[in-house]
Specification:
alpha/beta; Rossmann fold; 2 domains; 11 helices; binds 6-O-phosphono-beta-D-fructofuranose
Length: 370
């Protein structure tokens, strides 16, 4: 990677940035964007640390073949990322230790023009794609690429990163089951997903959970305790509950981590403790919790995620070439298509209550906590 000063912009120059929480497959997208651009004779720049690279946070770099060699199976992002880099609400520290938010979007757009950037491929989840749509409204041509382990971006059948996260969570469920059985305990496994229950639902099904708690179905813990007791009567003296971090009790709200994040979204976490404590009190069973946390975001992408990420990256460059900016690439099996950015971010993808996965879980006798 070499620093680009934008002195001699090539006739066609695009840039790529990765924003928000990382997800397995980001590097594969970068590789496809870089090779797709270079093979058209374009220059490809890398904006580091989300959009922050255009605001002096890190140098903008010129990407060539060497930079993306062997990247398809590598987790993380070579460009770095942040979930605190909204240029419209840039956090500026004050001398008294507080922060104020400043709109630096004009500065960002000026910098992109100075560098000769004709379009930005913005890889991110709902937050980053929302920022991309706002920048597009201000005149910066953008193509969005939907990324997130949460699978909560609208207008795409799935996002890359999700399949890898579900594999990690399912693997954990398999391991948890044997120790739960040995000790005749109730294990409560908390997974990520923000306000969508996709990871919990898929890993719960594939990992044979006895109860699956998701944000879309507010839970009644007495129903979960009933399930634990029913199993006990059948001689099954252990149970495994999987709970999405954004799941909430009926009439209650999601459990947030203490400490606001300046310039970032609220942080979810801790619901497993609430669930485990209730089950312990009401069934007398010994309980333990496991929070999988950022393990779900790390590691090498699965084959499915690698393919999707490469196809998304290639499709994003194609979209720029064909003048379809201010769109997001999307998976509409078997094709990768594009949809208007605003349409995608306006409709978050949450678990439909009548979906086949929920019906399957219920028909297998799993409790959905209701
Ligand atoms: O959106 C991806 C995600 O991993 C969520 O599932 C989770 O709530 C959040 O990011 C955690 O973010 P952070 O990196 O700030 O801990």
């Amino acid at each position: 990677m070499t620093a680009s000063h934008g002195m001699y912009p090539s006739s066609m120059c695009i840039a790529v940035s990765t924003g928000g929480g990382d997800a397995p497959g980001l590097n594969a997208v970068i590789r496809a964007v870089v090779l797709g651009g270079l093979n058209r004779g374009w220059e490809v720049l890398g904006i580091r640390r989300g959009f922050g690279g255009l605001l002096g946070d890190a140098p903008v770099v010129s990407l060539d073949r060497e930079d993306v060699r062997g990247l398809t199976n590598v987790g993380g992002t070579i460009l770095g990322t942040t979930n605190r880099g909204n240029p419209f609400k840039w956090p500026v520290p004050q001398s008294d230790g507080t922060w104020v938010e400043k709109d630096r979007s004009d500065e960002l757009i000026d910098k992109a023009r100075l560098l000769g950037i004709k379009a930005v491929v913005a890889v991110g989840g709902d937050g980053t794609l929302g920022i991309a749509a706002d920048l597009a409204d201000k005149g910066l041509p953008v193509v969005g690429v939907p990324k997130t382990i949460d699978n909560d971006v609208g207008s795409t059948w799935t996002t890359f990163g999700f399949d890898t996260a579900v594999n990690t969570a399912t693997d954990a469920m398999d391991k948890i089951e044997s120790t739960a059985e040995s000790h005749e305990r109730v294990m409560v496994v908390e997974v990520m997903g923000r306000y969508a229950g996709w990871i919990a639902l898929h890993a719960g099904l594939a990992g044979s959970a006895h109860a699956i708690l998701i944000p879309e179905i507010p839970f009644d813990l007495d129903k979960v305790c009933d399930k634990v007791r029913q199993r006990e009567v059948l001689g099954r003296k252990f149970s495994v509950v999987i709970v999405a971090e954004g799941a909430m009790p009926k009439g209650g709200s999601a459990v947030l981590k203490a400490g606001a994040v300046v310039g970032g979204a609220e942080r979810l976490g801790g619901v497993a403790n609430l669930v485990a404590e209730y089950i312990r009190e009401h069934t007398g069973k010994e309980t333990r919790t496991v929070t999988l946390g950022h393990l779900q975001r790390g590691g090498s992408p699965t084959t499915f995620d690698r393919l999707l990420a490469l196809r998304f990256g290639a499709a994003a460059v194609r979209a720029v070439e064909e003048g379809r900016t201010n769109h997001m690439v999307a998976f509409d099996p078997p094709d990768v298509t594009t949809v208007p950015l605003r349409e995608a971010i306006g409709h978050p993808h949450r678990v439909p209550l009548d979906c086949d996965q929920i019906r399957t879980a219920r028909e297998l006798g799993m409790s959905m906590g209701d």
